[in-house]
Write a structure and sequence with these properties.
The chain crosses the membrane at residues 29-46, 58-78, 84-108. The protein is mostly helical. It has helices at 2-22, 28-43, 48-59, 61-64, 66-74, 76-81, 83-113. The chain has a domain at 2-61 and 87-113. The radius of gyration is 25 Å and the shape is extended.
């Protein structure tokens, strides 16, 4: 497990180096995840040790948010000044994400089932009476 944790940290470090060297506006850990994904695609399977290590990290994922939460509380005075815009953007972005996800899911479901709704034919015009 330690060996695979080291592999994950090495990919994160590689992502940090890539992000800094190319001045990409993407965080290093995200670049590292992309590199890890590409390596797994090339390897064509997830090694058992890596799967067990990832499962262990995901099981305890909530513990990894404790330092971030402590940092937010430490700097709450800074956040307090912009609490309304931050709160509004969180709520609006969440609602927008839910709406886009629902629309995309409905569209993909129709497309996958081949039952895309047909346009309704125009209603016949009523005959003119004289």
């Amino acid at each position: 497990m330690v060996e695979w944790f080291t592999v994950l940290v090495v990919f994160q470090l590689a992502g940090e180096v890539l992000s800094a060297a190319t001045k990409l506006p993407v965080p290093g850990p995200v670049c590292g995840m992309v590199l890890l994904f590409l390596a797994l695609v090339i390897y064509r399977r997830v090694p058992d040790g890596l799967a067990k290590t990832a499962e262990g990290l995901l099981t305890n994922l909530s513990l990894l948010f404790v330092p971030a939460g402590a940092g937010v509380m430490l700097h709450f005075g800074v956040l307090e000044h912009d609490l309304l815009p931050i709160g509004a953007s969180l709520i609006l972005s969440t609602l927008l994400t839910i709406a886009v996800t629902a629309a995309l899911m409905a569209w993909l479901s129709r497309k996958a089932s081949g039952n895309a709704p047909e346009p309704k034919p125009a209603a016949p015009e009523p005959e003119a009476r004289s």
